[in-house]
Design brief:
Helices cover 40% and strands 22% of the residues. The chain is an alpha/beta fold. The protein has one domain: 3-Layer(aba) Sandwich (Rossmann fold), CATH 3.40.50. A hairpin with a 4-residue loop joins strand 2 and strand 3. The longest helix is centred in the middle third of the chain and has 29 residues. It is globular and about 80 Å long.
Amino acid sequence: MARRFALWMLLLLASILLLLSLILAYFSCKDYDQEFTDKKGKLAAVSLEPAGKSGEAEKYWLRLQGDGGLLAECGLLVPPDRANRYPAFVVLGGKATGKYAVDYALGVKDVIIIAPDYPYEPRESYAVVDVLTDLPKIRTALFDMVPSVELALDYLWTRKDVDTGRVVLLGYSFGAPYVPALASRDRRFAVAAMVYGAGDLQSWIRHNVRRYEGPLFSDFVGFLSGVLLRPLEPLRHIHNISPTPFIMINGEQDEQVPRRNVEMLFDAAREPKRIVWLSSRHVNPRDTSLTRTIIRTLGHELIELGVLPGMNTDARTSDLRR
C-alpha cells in the first residue's frame, strides 16, 4: 500500500512538472508582437488634468484610452509656449516612480516629457507564496507597458508642439529593460537610451533577489522570471535597434546592475552605439546630484547626435569616466 501511494505521488509530481514545463515552454516561445499591437489598438480618448507646475513647465496627469480597452496613465510636462515645436522624451522610470518620473526632470527646459505609469504596485518584499500569487498580475502589467508606451507615442503625434523627428525613448533602472523591445518594434524614436540597465533578466533578477534571500529562492525567482519575461528580454531585441542610435549610461559601483550584464548587452548592440560610465552606485531619485549628472550626460550625448540643438542645463562632462 505504501509503495503504491509513493508511486502515485511520483506520477503526480512528474505530471505537475511536465505541465509546468509545457506552460513555461508556451510562454517562452509565443510571439507577442501581434498581441502587443492588438492590445494597443487606436487612441480613442484623451483626458488631461492640470497638476500645477514643475519648474517653468506645465504639469498634467494624462489618461489615454485605446479602442481595445487599454488605459495608460501618464505624467506630462509641457513648456508654456505652445507656439514652438519641442523635442519629446518618453520616460520609463524606476518601479517607485512611474508617472512621477516627470518630477525628476531637474533643470530641463524646452522639452516635452511623458512618463507612463506602471499598472502594478510592487510589494516591499516577496516570499515564495507572494511571487506565485502576484506572478500573473505582474506579468500582465509588465507586458501592458509595451502597448501603453506606443499609445503614448500615438498621443505625442497628435500634438502640434512636438517635433516628431526628435522623440527620445529613455528607460532607467526598472524601466530600462523595455528599451530594446520598444525601440526595435517602433521606428518613431530618434534615439533609444538605457540608464542603469542591462541584459539577461534571469541573472539580473537572481542577483537582486540574492541580495536579500537565499540561493535556492533567488535561483527559483530568477529562472521563473527569465522564462516568463523572455518576450521582453533585452538580449533578444538589442541587435534590432540599429540604425536607431543606442546610448547606455551606467554606474561603475552599481550594486543592483552587474557590470557583466551591462557589457553583455552593449557588446550585442549594433552601431551606432555609445556607453558612458559614471562613478556612482545605482540611480536613486533622492540623489539629486546624481540625477543632475545623468541629465547633463544624456543632454551632451543628444547634442552630439544632433537630436537636441542644446539644452538649458550644464552640459559639462568633466565629472564623467568614459
